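Posting this for the archive.
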Amino acid sequence: MTNEATGLLAIWSTIASESETDYMHWLTREHVFERVSVPGFRSGRVLKRRGSRPSEYVMLYDLDNADVMSSPGYLERLNDPTPWTRRIMPTLEQFRRGGGVISAQGGNPAGHGGRVAIARFEGALPDSLRGNQGRELVNRLAKNDWIANVQIMTVKNDATSIATQEKSMRRSSEGEFAGLLVIEALDSDSLDRAIALASESGDITPDSFASYDLVFVCTAQQ
């Protein structure tokens, strides 16, 4: 295993209040552990969007590389869901899933902050997140006080769009997106300052970001 992951998988969904306890127990007692046991998965995190009603959650999985999403080990899990997974999948709404390549990384990739802002771009990534501009922005954000980690991820559509048994069980269609800017901070004020700094680029607005709190972490056993 190298020192730095180069892939990221992000999965969003909302869950009704009457199903939320079952959903959270599924995530934190079975599902995330199952996922990070797949070769190439390094860690899994569960985050909850602040003030969301119904509750919105995002799972972030650090991967050795983007090819893990089409690996035999991962596809085997997706095509052989557990009974608990079969019960949960039809309850998920506003489902979005996308994974790909980390094109820029700032801060220490092994560390994570408890306050997280994510800008999700439905179309192409804005110019300020591409190439050298993206790397410069990430480095500038990561140098700020109380910022733990900053990443740009570009979705790899061919791996994300593979048809699986799990996908067929969800009632809602699977939304797509092109990429992400993820900022992780140690407190809310620092996160707000980083959002404002990112917005100075001109093609990212503060409204592009949603703020989340970290609620669960699981790392792969070495």
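The chain has a mean pLDDT of 91. Residues 20-36 form the longest helix (17 residues).
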